[in-house]
Every structure is written in structure tokens, then in C-alpha cells.
Amino acid sequence: MTRLASVGQLFLMGALAVTCASGGNTLAAPANEKTSVVELFSSQGCSLCPPAHRILQQLSRRPGIVVLSFPVNYWDYLGWKDTLARPEYGERQRNYAALLTKGEVFTPLAVVNGMRNCVGSDLAAIETAIRSTSTSLTSQSVPLSVHREDGNLHIEVGDSDAPPRHRSGKLWVATVLRSRSEKIGAGDNAGQMVTYTNVVRRLTDAGDWQGAPASYSLPLDALSKDGDMLVVFLQTGKLGPILAATLVDIDFNRN
């Protein structure tokens, strides 16, 4: 069954893929296409999470969809410590919960485009959320381009020919492993092998955005090297509608 807890209980407990083939290539999603982002919050101790990961893998194969898997650790007390979870991912989910679920935090939870939440093992609900949020965000999409040069990741956000439409936002860079399998040793999923898709190993705050065209530069060495891909995405506020997203293949051994 779905694991469910309130925010208070938890505190008491303690999109379209673009590939970078060479150093100077510029990466950008087509201006007329909105890339949808599906974030999955899951736990290895949750019985409904393995089906949710299979759904996430299925969604990742569809054009125009970027998926991110955020393993959380707040169910570790049940007897199995999640091998990939990080406390900050649970914090991200709690912040979403304050906005979207009246404080309820559960797994598996899917958040679509930063706007809609649904049970992560319900494909039909996720597809409905993708359609509804993509429609409302079509006129709000923001150009986003990425290229690497001299050991740095350079990101351009916004269009100088278009007036600012948003007051503020934040640019995120997620370092991910595109596929990772983990065998669960105890709990509801004991003995199962779970395959993660685009599992986040580090989420980097690349800087604030004030609605106008802006440039960002991050040294690749500052990004975690335990991933094989980056997801760059622009989100209004601290957590809100996601206006743009791009997948970037990176060989961390190259400058």
C-alpha cells in the first residue's frame, strides 16, 4: 500500500532528451515544444514503489518528457535503509507537500511540471497531469540552452526579444545516473531488484533567475561525478511551475 505520513510526523521521525556530443555544441529544446518534467519520490521500503519505477522508465522513453527519481529516507526506520536516499530529497518533497498535498507526504509520489501531484504508480493519473499542466504552461515556456566549454557548463536562459513574464525563479542542475539497479534486502520489497531511471545523485542550485535573459556558468568539477547525465531545469519560485528542461549527456572525464 502507499506509504503515507504527515509533515509533522516526518519531522518527529528525526523531459525531451538532447545529447552533447562535443565540447562546443549548444543544446536547446525546440522553442515551440514544452518539455514536461516528472519527479518521482520513492522509497525502497514502499511496496508500491517498484511499479512506480517501471512506469517512470516507460515515461522516460517518450519524447518531450524528462523524468527524475528522488529516493527519500523517511521510511528507513521500518527496517531497511534506502541505499540511494538523501535527506534533502525528502525536504524537497515536504516543500512540495506544503504547496500541493496539504502537508501529506507519501510514496510513491509523482510531481508533474512542479504543478500537479499524483500517486506515482498510477500511469493514467500521471498522463492526465502531463496533459493538463503542459497546456497551461505552453505560453509560459522559456528558452533554455546549454553548452560546455573549457571545463565549464554554460547555461543561457530567456529571450532578449521577449518581455519578462515571470518575477523570479531558480535554475537547477541535477546530476543523475540514467539507470541504476539495487537489490532490496529487507522490508516489504525484500529480495526484489529495483531499477531506477534518472536517479538524482546531486541537485545543484545554479542560481536565481529574475525573469530577464541571464547567463550561468558552473565548473563541471563542482558537479558530482557519480552520474552520467545532467538535467538542467528552470523553476519559478523555490518550487513552482517548471518552465524549461533539458537533458545533457556529459563525460566527466573530458574538459
UniProtKB/TrEMBL annotation:
Keywords: Signal. The keyword Zinc does not apply. Residues 1-21 form the signal peptide. It comes from the Bacteria. Coiled coil: none annotated. This is Secreted protein.
